[in-house]
């Protein structure tokens, strides 16, 4: 068992390094991922912000958590695309003929997604600071925020793995991300849910984005998070488990 674990992590580090090299050679993908969320942040803060009542003095403070989730939703599309390219080029067959742990090929892409989306989130936070974002959160609260964002990224990335492995075309590999990107619009990311019609409000309050946004928002404001953080973690962990199982089943059939 000890040697198996040793080789598993060694194989995974090799696959991770391979995937990271793809990112380092095409940093424009990270820039592309950031453009739309930053544009949305600029639009809502400077155009719509004055007309939106959120009960906060600085709308960018209210808006930022949802923008970060949108960036992650956009970034995972590249994971699906790269997996599709590997599948179509026969890369998986080559790796399967080698004495390596099969799942490490997928984990390399997943870990790379964590790094690349983390960079995107940091860029967005820096832009938000220039726009007036301020936080009273301490180090522990910031660590909790990045922890939630990391788990959320893992959850969406495993969904992206399913899309990449099951897609028949390059466009199909990334198309799944569009509903995820716009899911924050039907949540408390942009406006409080109590301003929504009853049917929309019911959906907004019972989908995964709202508790994640509320938990991050309260952490950044150094306010009690209540049950939102546990609901957010429960959603993310449930998605990871289900998506991982389906992804591995599809992968084993390739």
Features of the shown structure:
single chain; 254 residues; mainly alpha; 11 helices; 0% strand
Describe the model.
The model has no long low-confidence stretch (mean pLDDT 87). This protein is elongated. It has one domain. It contains eleven helices and no strands. Helix content is 76%, strand content 0%. Helix 1 crosses helix 5 and helix 3 runs antiparallel to helix 5.
Chain-wise SSE layout:
Elements: H1 2-24, H2 28-48, H3 59-88, H4 91-96, H5 103-130, H6 139-166, H7 170-175, H8 177-182, H9 198-205, H10 209-220, H11 228-252
Helix pairs in contact: 1-5, 2-3, 2-5, 3-5, 3-6, 3-10, 5-6, 6-10, 6-11, 10-11
Strand content: under 5%
| Shape designation | elongated
The poorly predicted ranges are: none
**Number of contiguous helices:** 11
Number of strands: 0
Helical percentage: over 70%
Helix and strand element order: HHHHHHHHHHH
Provide the domain count: 1
Major β-sheet profile:
none
Helix/strand class:
mainly alpha
Task: Name the average pLDDT.
Answer: 87
Distance, first to last CA: 27 Å
Radius of gyration: 19 Å
Main location: membrane
Domain ABC transmembrane type-2: 28-254
Membrane topology: Multi-pass membrane protein
Organism: Clostridium homopropionicum DSM 5847
Brief overview:
Helix content is 76%, strand content 0%.
